[in-house]
């Protein structure tokens, strides 16, 4: 390798991108990237080194793998800091200089490392809280709402304090913490971390996450106050639908903290939560609920968590029973404020009151700066849309989604809620003069690293794509949810099952979804191997466990997607028992290869389904169920083969073949027509590989005919929408697929764009053409599932598609027609792939010649397939293709 093109290790990391500083695993996977201007660079081998103290261990890797490489040494131990570096060698035989040493740090790692008790306030009587009124018990909807908004012990926030005397210099101090509820840790009344809503929502009976923060700089010599606020969060929320609400009750709000102090003289001290802490439920936060909002009385604010102070109304904390075996270090990125958005414009309600329009439907909270009279009650209400010049709050159902601030009257005051979040574009603030309040919106979500971009010369397509991005942001708050605004916000498995490929292009979802899939597996084990409809499950389950095609198939699809997108074999290894258990359930549901029993959501929200019966789609639900039986069996067989489980690969491969043959007999005519003559039926048959190869053209022709006769409008729900464009493309009807994306008439992808949407809607017609909200009781304006078409956009328009796990081998195959220019970028685990192209004709079609620039990162090979050219294989570097 010449001196003019030096190579270097540009990145080395342990664990997932964006993951916490302290390891979430005692054996974190290693990933590195090489940067070089040398063309066609590929790795031939690498040497990994681990330094523990003065001892260095070497491990040699043969081959080119550099993503999610298994930790090859003894596992980390609690509070250990080890150092790792890597020195790759290219296939040309030239070594790349070793990387800098990477510090891999650990806090507690396993339950045995945790000695802190869980403590609660003695005056926490939330266990005696009266259940909310319910429609089932005869209450009216207004009475139910009032009950859910009522102050009471279940909605209080507990505060905790302990003083710590530091008498000598501290070399390192690590504070580890978790809670039954959501927690904010403070030292001397300053927040320890910018993490929000920790420890998030998990399958609490099986998994409770904890975080670790370095607080060395906070603990100089003297006395310090270690404090915490713990709100109910998801742990003590009321969940339900249609006015019937259940409370998940695991015990009182509780805190567990472990502070390890390593002094400069070599001594170590560990302080933990116990009965010596002080605690109270008194304080300025009078009410906190994920769904209903937060109420803060600034007149009651105190200095109870500050140094040299005392916590008013406090008493010794009580130790509560808790199972430490549930504890796991958080491995996913935390929830944070990731940006602020100013008011775009002020509009007036029908009565003349100001409504703030932020110009973007977002998820987060308002931050207000205010002057007012003592005792003034300032109300903050939120909505995603306007209807008849008022906040459109009906879609929120029983979620109040409102915050309240009582003014202290001490001059300028600033406040934002800390224990709730809302989905909104519009907000209305009452109780203060317009000139006396300044407002910004803070965007809040799990802080996933952005990895994918797409821009074109068609503004509507770009707006659609941006809507998908914002829909993703809004529905990754601790877990992948269906919607972020109403009385639901559950981890519905069907939504992320269809959306995972899109999400994983736009953001690095590896650590986030890997963590959530562990909750799915834990819930699944508790309900007999059935993939849950949503996860985490609520103890008093909202629905009886039932095998549900497309939803339960999250157990097989998402791990397979994570492996394909991030070259993560470990997720397949970890989730394999869950994958296999689900397909074993499916085998029991099938008779002679067909799944034709039980309730099925199937092609949920097909546009022809009645508003109040969204499961009544045009496509036979059992056709969908059988198609997914084949898909999951095939995915388990493929995973088994990758993991060296050859016997399982054969068993599940045979079952997949049996289902495929049964599908053809039951649902396909000899001429290639589907018994359900609907878009989704053809889409699953073609994309899932259920048809004999010779029938694919005929099936594609019929699908294209249905689409064209329907004016190129969409005719699919959750199942068909992500794959109908692929089905048309695979079967030779790309132009029809592109035409579908250009349609603005209802139902279509661009209809919401034409109506001013800035996120993806739950229904194709969540807002009707006259500007009124869909009359159905299930109408969200921030649901990402129908935005899964962006996966096709990334591959077919942007031209970036994986051919091997992690995009180590990538297909670059863009086509004009829908747009005449596109720029796509994807920051893969191996490096950034870029494709920039434009059509060489003024009126382009999919066959038009393209001029393109393709940038391939080191250790990646691209197959470039442009119209009118033979495909060519290229290595790393910048490649230009002209007419």
TrEMBL record:
Residues covered by the Alpha-L-rhamnosidase concanavalin-like domain: 350-441
Keywords of this protein's UniProt record, alphabetized?
Hydrolase
Catalysis: reaction(s): Hydrolysis of terminal non-reducing alpha-L-rhamnose residues in alpha-L-rhamnosides
Q: Gene3D superfamilies, from UniProt?
A: 1.50.10.10, Galactose-binding domain-like, Maltose phosphorylase, domain 3
> Where does the Alpha-L-rhamnosidase six-hairpin glycosidase domain start and stop, copy by copy?
450-797
Span of domain Alpha-L-rhamnosidase C-terminal: 799-876
What segment(s) does the record annotate as region Disordered? 1-20, 125-150
Does Hydrolase appear among the keywords?
Answer: yes
- Write down the EC number: 3.2.1.40
Q: Please, which domain of life does this record's source organism belong to?
A: Bacteria
Q: InterPro entries, alphabetically?
A: 6-hairpin_glycosidase_sf, 6hp_glycosidase-like_sf, Alpha_rhamnosid, Bac_rhamnosid6H, Bac_rhamnosid_C, Bac_rhamnosid_N, Rhamnosid_concanavalin
Q: Is Cell membrane a UniProt keyword of this protein?
A: no
Q: Which residues form the Bacterial alpha-L-rhamnosidase N-terminal domain?
A: 170-338
Any single GO molecular-function term of the entry would be: hydrolase activity
Its recorded name reads alpha-L-rhamnosidase
Q: Could you tell me which species this protein originates from?
A: Microbacterium gilvum
């Amino acid at each position: 390798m010449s001196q003019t093109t030096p190579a270097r290790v540009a990145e080395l990391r342990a664990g997932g991108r964006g993951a916490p500083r302290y390891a979430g695993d005692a054996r974190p996977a290693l990933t590195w990237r090489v940067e070089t201007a040398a063309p066609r660079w590929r790795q031939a081998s690498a040497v990994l080194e681990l330094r523990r103290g003065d001892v260095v261990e070497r491990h040699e890797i043969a081959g080119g793998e550099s993503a999610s490489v298994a930790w090859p040494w003894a596992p980390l131990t609690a509070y250990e800091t080890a150092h790792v570096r890597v020195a790759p060698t290219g296939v040309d035989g030239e070594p790349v200089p070793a990387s800098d040493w990477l510090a891999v740090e650990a806090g507690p790692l396993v339950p045995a490392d945790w000695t802190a008790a869980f403590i609660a306030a003695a005056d926490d009587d939330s266990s005696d809280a009266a259940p909310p009124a319910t429609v089932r018990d005869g209450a009216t909807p207004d009475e139910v709402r009032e009950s859910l908004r009522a102050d009471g012990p279940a909605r209080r926030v507990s505060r905790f304090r302990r003083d710590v005397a530091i008498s000598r210099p501290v070399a390192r101090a690590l504070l580890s913490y978790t809670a039954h509820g959501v927690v904010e840790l403070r030292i001397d009344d300053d927040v320890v971390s910018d993490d929000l809503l920790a420890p998030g929502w998990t399958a609490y009976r099986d998994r409770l996450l904890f975080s670790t923060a370095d607080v060395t700089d906070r603990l100089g010599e003297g006395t310090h106050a270690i404090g915490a606020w713990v709100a109910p969060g998801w742990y003590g929320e009321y969940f339900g639908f249609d006015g019937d609400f259940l409370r998940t009750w695991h015990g009182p709000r509780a805190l567990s903290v472990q502070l390890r102090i390593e002094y400069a003289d070599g001594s170590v001290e560990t302080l933990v939560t116990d009965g010596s802490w002080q605690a109270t439920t008194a304080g300025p936060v009078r009410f906190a609920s994920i769904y209903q909002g937060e109420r803060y009385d600034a007149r009651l604010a105190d200095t109870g968590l500050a140094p040299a102070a005392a916590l008013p109304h406090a008493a010794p904390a009580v130790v509560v029973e808790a199972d430490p075996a549930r504890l796991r270090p958080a491995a996913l990125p935390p929830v944070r404020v990731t940006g602020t958005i100013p008011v775009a414009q002020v509009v007036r309600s029908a009565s003349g009151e100001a409504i703030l329009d932020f110009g973007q439907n977002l998820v987060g909270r308002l931050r207000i700066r205010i002057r007012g009279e003592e005792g003034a009650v300032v109300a903050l209400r939120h909505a995603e849309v306007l209807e008849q010049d008022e906040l459109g709050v009906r879609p929120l159902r029983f979620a109040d989604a409102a915050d309240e601030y009582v003014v202290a009257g001490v001059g300028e005051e600033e406040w934002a809620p800390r224990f709730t979040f809302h989905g909104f574009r519009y907000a209305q603030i009452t109780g203060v003069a317009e000139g006396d309040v300044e407002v910004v919106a803070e965007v809040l979500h799990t802080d996933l690293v952005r990895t994918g971009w797409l821009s074109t010369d068609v503004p509507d397509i770009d707006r659609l794509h941006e809507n998908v991005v914002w829909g993703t942001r809004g529905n990754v708050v601790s877990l992948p949810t269906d919607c972020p605004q109403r009385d639901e916000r559950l981890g519905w498995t069907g939504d992320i099952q269809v959306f995972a490929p899109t999400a994983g292009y736009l953001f690095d979802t590896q650590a986030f979804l890997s963590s959530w899939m562990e909750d799915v597996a834990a819930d699944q084990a508790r309900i007999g191997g059935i993939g849950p409809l949503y996860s985490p499950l609520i103890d008093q389950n909202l629905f009886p466990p039932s095998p549900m095609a497309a939803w339960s198939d999250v157990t097989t699809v998402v791990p397979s997607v994570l492996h394909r997108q991030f070259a993560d074999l470990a997720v397949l290894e970890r989730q394999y028992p869950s994958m296999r258990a689900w397909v074993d359930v499916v085998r029991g549901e099938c008779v002679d290869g067909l799944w034709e029993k039980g309730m099925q959501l199937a092609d949920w929200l097909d546009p022809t389904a009645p508003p109040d019966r969204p499961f009544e789609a045009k496509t036979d639900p059992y056709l969908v169920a059988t198609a997914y039986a084949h898909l999951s069996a095939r995915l388990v067989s493929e995973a088994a083969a990758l993991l060296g489980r050859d016997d399982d690969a054969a068993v599940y491969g045979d079952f997949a073949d049996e289902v495929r043959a049964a599908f053809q007999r039951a649902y396909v005519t000899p001429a290639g027509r589907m018994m359900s003559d609907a878009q989704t039926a053809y889409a699953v048959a073609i994309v899932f590989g259920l048809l004999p190869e010779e029938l694919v053209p005929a099936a594609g022709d019929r699908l294209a005919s249905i689409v064209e006769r329907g004016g190129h409008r969409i005719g699919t729900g959750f199942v068909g929408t992500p794959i109908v464009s692929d089905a048309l493309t695979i079967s030779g009807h790309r132009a029809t697929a592109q035409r579908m994306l250009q349609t603005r008439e209802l139902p279509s992808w661009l209809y919401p764009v034409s109506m001013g949407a800035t996120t993806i809607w739950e229904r194709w017609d969540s807002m009707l053409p006259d500007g009124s909200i869909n009359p159905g009781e299930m109408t969200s304006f921030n649901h990402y599932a129908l935005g899964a078409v962006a996966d096709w956009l990334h591959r077919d328009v942007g031209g970036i598609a994986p051919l091997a796990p992690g995009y180590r081998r990538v297909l670059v195959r863009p086509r004009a027609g829908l747009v005449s220019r596109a720029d796509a970028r994807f920051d893969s685990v191996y490096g950034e792939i870029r494709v920039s192209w434009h059509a060489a004709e003024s009126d382009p079609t999919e066959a038009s010649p393209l001029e393109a620039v393709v940038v391939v990162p080191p250790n990646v090979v691209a197959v470039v397939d442009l119209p009118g050219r033979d495909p060519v294989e290229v290595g790393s570097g910048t490649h230009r293709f002209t007419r």
